[in-house]
Design brief:
- The chain has 3 helices and 14 strands.
- The chain is mostly beta strands.
- It has a domain of about 160 residues.
- A hairpin with a 6-residue loop joins strand 5 and strand 6.
- About 5% of the residues have low confidence.
Amino acid sequence: MAIREGRWRCPYCATVNRGRDLACTGCGATRDADVAFFLEDDAPELLEQTLIAQARAGADWLCAFCRTSNRPGAARCANCGAERAGAPSRGTRELRGGPLPSGVSPPPARYHGPLAAVVGLALLLAALLGFLALRTTEESVSVTDFQWTRAIEVEAFRKVRESAWDGELPPGARVLSRSREVHHTERVPAGTERVKVGTRDLGNGFFEDVYAERPVYQEHPVYRERLGYEVERWVGDRTERASGNDQIPRWPLLRLGRQEREARRSETYIVLLKGRRIYMMELPYERWFGLRAGETRTAVIRGGRRLVALR
């Protein structure tokens, strides 16, 4: 399994060091029990046999007196000289779903001054635009015009050609054609594959990839008979509409032929209002009909453009 070198951040000077370093390269402080290792996303696989052997030698042990990390083969603490005796080893842990252990962050990103200023300005501008888009204000508006539309949908009883799976024909259908087609697919086990599922912190500055066997499936088609058929049913035929710019709405004149019927009626009522700009608002019939041209109302405007309420 692949071995990768981790990193650790010095708790005293914040320098990021290689996993192999027992002392901070920035301030010289020894690596102690408070240090946590992390693995960067792009950490390469180690190929140097010396480092691989060092990684597989075991977890570091922590001096019982000064808490300094020591290599597993060391008999005495490199910091204070105390014998290992029964000193505990760093624990190893398996990290699922990502290389960073809980509570450990990678080195903070460093932005150059101009770039940081540009990012900050962009965030400030986005926040300002969001505030302006959601801000509501009130303004006085006058009723200038009315619009209305009324529609009636008409259905006709006709022969239509459709298709369905065998066993799902509607009543009265006459079969015209048959064909064998894919109805659905089924997942069928086809073996296993070895996949990386995480990493293991080896407790010495190095990490090991963790693999597991995962089942592999293949999609197999399942066929059924597809039937083309003819059936008589009510289907949408046309829509009759009427509209106007007054407050006298009326339904369109409806003439139904043989084997036709009225299906559904719909209506829309819009008022035009003039304030700082011209606004349009759809209203229920009762409220729309209750308005009068020229009267003044208070409008609630969101984002300086959209009318959201009329008082």
